[in-house]
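Exercise: predict the structure of this protein bound to GLP.
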Amino acid sequence: MEVVIVPDAKAGGELIAEAMAALLRRKPDALLGVATGSTPLPIYEALTGKVQRGEVDASKARICQLDEYVGLPAGHPESYRATVLRQVVEPLGLTEASFMGPDGSASDIPAACEAYDRALAEAGGVDLQLLGIGTDGHIGFNEPCSSLASRTRIKTLTEQTLVDNARFFDGDIEQVPHHVITQGIGTIMEARHLVLLATGEGKADAVAATVEGPVAAIVPASALQLHRHATVVVDEAAASKLKLADYFRHTYANKPTWQGL
Ligand SMILES: N[C@@H]1[C@@H](O)[C@H](O)[C@@H](COP(=O)(O)O)O[C@@H]1O
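Solution:
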């Protein structure tokens, strides 16, 4: 696992967007797994800027979703499908034809979950999966004690996540769906490159447990320790509880430039 400490969220966004652009230059039809929440917004902004300035061609890129609420009416602005279309697909100049996501309004949820896992595999697998992290260490919507081998399936949100996400629903916790579909941890681990961005002091405990704690289902993001190509990008605030922060700074500062992320 590589840990990169950046000065702030904007620098993290720029660094990761450049890694995505480099991937698209090598593989124009790369399948990019995207995440929702506030954290990845600087990535999408930076990548859109690169596309608009002609620094990278994203016209063949394919985008896939990490997770989704269950039971929101189709087209609800806070569904993750609508969010990803608004924040990523449209700004990159893509259409829904380049986009894949699980169907949170399906009548047969287990079938929809299986279909999504199958669709990801049939698409050749995810090339680069962006991840945020919940304050409780979740990735996607894999809450603490999710199986580290889990596949895409339905999950129930913890009280903490309901509280954290109420801000997207007018601050009203009653409006936050209790159930979600999420790529499982086993599914996420099949992506060829995992890139987790965490910013702000509120994520410092979760980051420390993810990077320096034991691999344990109580901290779902700690599964990244078992991935062959996982990059954790953190700003100074989110890095503030890392014991090895100076080592991480040193290794990144001395990294050969050809290596990329
Ligand atoms: N399902 C999403 C996660 O994918 C995201 O990482 C997390 C953190 O969101 P934020 O980046 O807004 O803190 O929120 C939600 O729970």
